[in-house]
Amino acid sequence: MKKIIFLLPLVLLMSCYDVERNCKDFKTGKFKFEYEVDGVKKTTVFERKDSIEIETFEGRTDTSSIRWINDCEYILQKIHPKNMEEKKAINMKILTTSKKSYTFEFGIVGSDQKQRGTVEKISDGR
């Protein structure tokens, strides 16, 4: 019972915490996404111009259209898909932002499986 009394104020303080999300700062610009696959570091660089995204990964460039749902969420759809997997739209949701990066969650539209990552803004694209 004593533990509950001590934890109650802590829980109340945490529930008041508001996560910073300045998503408008990330609608345009040049970005870098680094991740690891089987112990190998991979890097994707992409440039976003509000309704279009041009991505370069391992020397290959793809273009996708963007449909913004709100300032922090959008649907990404490849313009020239090469196979059935690439035809599937991806839901992207910015969860938190900092001055030069954001954490996001993504998954195929309609799927409950989501992944998370962090993107770094490397220029404003001007």
Can you walk through the features of this model?
The protein is mostly beta strands. It has a single domain (19-123), classed as Beta Barrel (Lipocalin). Helix content is 14%, strand content 54%. The protein has helices at 2-15, 84-87; strands at residues 28-37, 40-49, 52-57, 60-70, 73-78, 90-97, 101-108, 115-123. An 8-stranded antiparallel β-barrel has the order 1-2-3-4-5-6-7-8. The longest helix is centred in the N-terminal third of the chain and has 14 residues, at 2-15. The protein is globular. The chain starts with a helix and ends with a strand.
Number of domains: 1
Unreliable residue runs: none
The tally of helices reads 2
How are the strands ordered across the major sheet?
A: 1-2-3-4-5-6-7-8
Instruction: Name the shape in a single word.
Output: globular
Main beta-sheet strand count, sense and barrel state: 8 strands, antiparallel, barrel
Mean model confidence by pLDDT: 87
Helices and strands, in N-to-C order?
A: HEEEEEHEEE
Number of strands: 8
Q: How much β-strand is present in the residues? A: over 45%
Q: Within the CATH hierarchy, at the fold level, what is the topology?
A: Lipocalin
What's the architecture, going by CATH? Beta Barrel
Helix content: 10-25%
CATH superfamily: Uncharacterised protein PF14869 family, DUF4488
Name of the level-1 CATH class: Mainly Beta
